[in-house]
C-alpha cells in the first residue's frame, strides 16, 4: 500500500506528519512525501522543512493520497502542477484524503461536487465554492474520499483510514503504539466550545 503526501510551500507540519506517523507504523504501508520537484519544502511557520523524496511525476498513481492544509493552501489552489496531480492520482487511488484546508485542494481538483466535506472551522464556508456541503465533524467519509477537520484531526482521519485499509485491531494497535490518548488541558478545541474572546484570538493567530 503506497501512500503519497504532497508538500507545497507553507503547509502545516502536523497536517502531514500526523497521518505520516500513523500510516508509517502500519504493516505493509509505504509513505512518501512528494512535491513538484524532489527536495526540501518548508512549512507555514518557516522553520520546519520536510524532504520530498519523489516528484509528482515519480509517483502518479499512489494507492492513498493524503493532502495536508496550511497557511499556503489558498496560494496553492492556483498551482496546477499540484491540483492536476491530485485530480489525476484520484482516478486510480483507493482512497483520497485531506487534512484541514487540504480539502479545498480536493475541491479545486473537482472532487467534492455534491459531497459532504469538512475542513478547518475558520474557512468552512469556502467549501461551498466547490459545490460541497460543509459539515462540522472531525472526520467525514464520502465514498473513497475522506476529509478531516483542522490540523490535529489528521491523526483521527489516519486511524479511521487505517481501519479500512487493514482492520480495526491494526488501527487500535497503532493508536496504542503512538500512545494517542487525547486528554487536552482545556476544552476549547472547537469553536462550539470556545468563548468569543478565545475565538477572536485564534483568528488573530491565523491571520498573523
TrEMBL record:
Superkingdom to which the source organism belongs: Bacteria
GO BP terms: regulation of DNA-templated transcription
Domain DJ-1/PfpI: 2-163
Pfam family, one: DJ-1_PfpI
InterPro entries: Class_I_gatase-like, DJ-1/PfpI, INH-QAR
SUPFAM superfamilies: Class I glutamine amidotransferase-like
This protein's name: DJ-1/PfpI family protein
Annotated source species: Nonomuraea turkmeniaca
